[in-house]
């Protein structure tokens, strides 16, 4: 361990020597990024490989990546870090230090006569092994961290000699369960009244989850699709114009793993109050339609509530009067039953 740590420090000193103007700098254009993968469900006594990927839009002379991957009593160890077959394979100096006690590691690559040329791809593979007491339902984040004495996540561009802090995307060991939530409201085949607002409601699927709500005008979710991600609550308030809609929800756990959407989305219809003819406007046609229903055994409005302009649960003379008042006498608009 001491040899690895001294080798690491020596390698980082080389970065400093190669970069005499070592200061932090802004990263113009597309920001450089470091991404850690999530290999999927991890079982007890299993070895898994986690890829670390780097995007850099200019040639780099070096990089250092410190990571933390667990907490005390967690039955997993990081066995090694490999550069074989990666973009950093031919770095003149490369190495890693693994602190098994504190669940930390750091790896580095220093390029002398070569560069980490601009591009996007894997720079290292982290090998983890779980023990017999590993809980396969866990989702353990792999995050960046400070690694004593001075190491933080940083890239060193060759041209500028100025160290950059890249953006970072967390990874994981294990994926943990991502349970499917249950749709509650609007119920399937429900009729909802516009212009009232209403709530999409679904069940809580567990702790530390976020939800993505999606609704569209067709059950295949190809027409008028609206996606609302990163919801931490199990409700979302909306006001939608007259139309048929379908909706479903997926969950995402803290390791970034998604559940599927429900096999069958719920469908509902939003109607315009007072629009008994269902043509999208409230006018004379609706007055005549309601009169025919009330006095001449005509067809009932569909949905029934679209003809209940007075919101008393019935369709009768009061609705005829209400509609006439609204259409011709600047009266109040039909209300939502």
Which descriptors apply to this entry?
single chain; 337 residues; mainly beta; Immunoglobulin-like; 2 domains; six-stranded antiparallel sheet; five-stranded mixed sheet; 3 helices; elongated; disordered N terminus
Quaternary structure annotation: single chain
Q: Which ranges are low-confidence, i.e. pLDDT below 50, for 5 or more consecutive residues?
A: 1-26
Give the overall form.
elongated
Report the count of strand segments.
19
Per CATH, the class of the largest domain reads Mainly Beta
Portion of residues within helices: 10-25%
SSE sequence, one letter per element: HEEEEEEEEEEEEEEEEEEEHH
CATH fold-level label of the largest domain: Immunoglobulin-like
Q: State Rg.
A: 30 Å
Largest sheet: 6 strands, antiparallel
Helix count, DSSP H or I runs of 4 or more residues: 3
**How many domains is the backbone divided into?**
2
Strand content: 35-45%
Write up this protein.
- By secondary structure, the protein is mainly beta.
- It folds into two domains: 2-173, Immunoglobulin-like, CATH 2.60.40; 183-272, Immunoglobulins (Immunoglobulin-like, Sandwich), CATH 2.60.40.10.
- It has helices spanning 2-18, 284-295, 317-328; strands at residues 33-36, 47-56, 60-68, 76-82, 93-99, 104-110, 119-130, 140-144, 154-157, 167-169, 171-173, 183-185, 190-194, 198-202, 210-216, 226-231, 235-238, 243-252, 266-272.
- The strands form four sheets. Strands 3, 5, 6, 8, 9 and 11 form a six-stranded antiparallel sheet that branches. Strands 4-7-2-1-10 form a five-stranded mixed sheet, with no helix packed on it.
- α2 packs antiparallel against α3 (317-328).
- It starts with a helix and ends in a 9-residue tail after the last helix.
């Amino acid at each position: 361990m001491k040899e690895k740590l001294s080798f690491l420090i020596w390698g980082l000193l080389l970065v400093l020597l190669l970069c005499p103007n070592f200061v932090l700098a802004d990263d113009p254009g597309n920001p450089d990024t470091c991404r850690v993968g999530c290999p999927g469900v991890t079982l007890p006594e299993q070895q898994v490989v986690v890829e670390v990927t780097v995007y850099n839009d200019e040639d780099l002379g070096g990089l250092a990546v410190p990571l933390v991957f667990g907490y005390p009593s967690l039955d997993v160890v990081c066995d090694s870090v490999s550069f074989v077959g990666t973009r950093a394979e031919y770095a003149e100096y490369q190495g890693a230090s693994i602190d098994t006690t504190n669940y930390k590691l750091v790896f580095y690559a220093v390029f002398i006569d070569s560069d980490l040329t601009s591009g996007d791809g894997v720079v290292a593979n982290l090998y983890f092994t779980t023990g017999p007491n590993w809980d396969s339902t866990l989702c353990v984040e792999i995050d960046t961290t400070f690694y004593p004495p001075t190491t933080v996540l940083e890239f060193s561009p060759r041209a500028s000699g100025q160290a950059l802090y890249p953006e970072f995307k967390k990874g994981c060991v294990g994926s943990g369960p991502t349970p499917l939530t249950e749709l509650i409201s609007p119920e399937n085949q429900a009729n909802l009244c516009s212009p009232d607002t209403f709530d999409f409601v679904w069940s809580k699927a567990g702790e530390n989850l976020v939800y993505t709500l999606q609704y569209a005008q067709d059950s295949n979710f190809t027409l008028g699709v609206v996606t609302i991600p990163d919801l931490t609550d199990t409700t979302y308030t909306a006001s939608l114009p007259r139309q048929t809609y379908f909706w479903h929800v997926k969950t995402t756990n803290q390791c970034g793993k998604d559940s599927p959407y429900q096999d069958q989305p719920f469908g509902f219809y939003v109607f315009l109050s007072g629009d008994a003819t269902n043509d999208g406007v409230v006018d004379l046609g609706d007055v005549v339609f309601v009169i025919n229903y009330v006095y001449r055994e005509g067809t009932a409005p569909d949905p029934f509530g679209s003809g209940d302009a007075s919101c008393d649960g019935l369709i009768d003379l009061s609705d005829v009067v209400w509609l006439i008042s609204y259409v011709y006498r600047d009266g109040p608009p039909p209300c939502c039953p």
